[in-house]
Amino acid sequence: MPFPQKIFGQQKVFFPNIIFRLVRSERLQPNQAAFKIPVNVNKLDVRDYLTHLYGVTVLDVRTVIYPGSKKFSRTSKETVKKPRVKKAIVTLAEEFKYPAAPNRDDFDGAFVDLSMKVQALKMRGWRIRSPLRKELAKLTKEKMDREEKEKEQS
To answer: Residues of the chain whose pLDDT is less than 70?
Structure first.
C-alpha cells in the first residue's frame, strides 16, 4: 500500500515550474526565510512546494504584495509600470541558515561587468576607446587561457 502524500495547495508539484527567489534579510528570526514568488502563488502552494521539494517543516507562511512602481520613460515619453512583486516570509520548524554569498570572480564578474559597460556604450553610439578596449581584450585572453587549461586537465 503506497504512503499517502499530504497536499496543501491547489496544485501538485511534480516538476517545479515556479521560481522562488531567496531574499537575504537580517531582520528575520533565525527560523524564518523570505522569498520573492509569483503573484498567482498562494500560501498553501508555498507550503506545499517547500514541504515536498525540500522536505522542510513549514509552520507559518505570511505573504505581502508590493505594488509595481511607475516611472517616466524619457525615450518614449510614456509612463512605464514595473510588475507587482509578492514576498513570502516562511517560518520553519528548524533554524534556517543562508547559503554562502557567491563569489563574483567564480562567474567572471569583472569580465561580465566590463562587457556590459562596453555593450551599453555601443548602444548609445559611442566609439570604444583604447584603454577600455585593452582591458576587455586582457580579460578575454585570461578567460580563454583558463578555459584551455580546464580542457587540458580533463
So the answer is: 1-16, 130
User: Can you give the three-state secondary structure of 29-62, one letter per residue?
Assistant: CCCEEEEEECCCCCHHHHHHHHHHHHCCCEEEEE
For the stretch 102-108, contacts whose Cβ atoms lie closer than 8 Å and that sit 24 or more positions apart, written own/partner, are 108/139, 108/143
Residue 29 lies in a domain: yes
Q: Which of 60, 64, 56, 11 is nearest to 37 (CA)?
A: 64
Q: What is the pLDDT of residue 109?
A: 73
What pLDDT score does 88 carry?
Answer: 97
CA pair distance 143, 108, nearest whole angstrom: 8
Cell of 117: 559597460
Domain coverage including residue 126: 104-153
Quick one: 59 and 32 in the same domain? yes
Cell of 27: 531582520
Mean pLDDT score across all residues of the chain = 83
pTM exceeds cut of 0.70: no
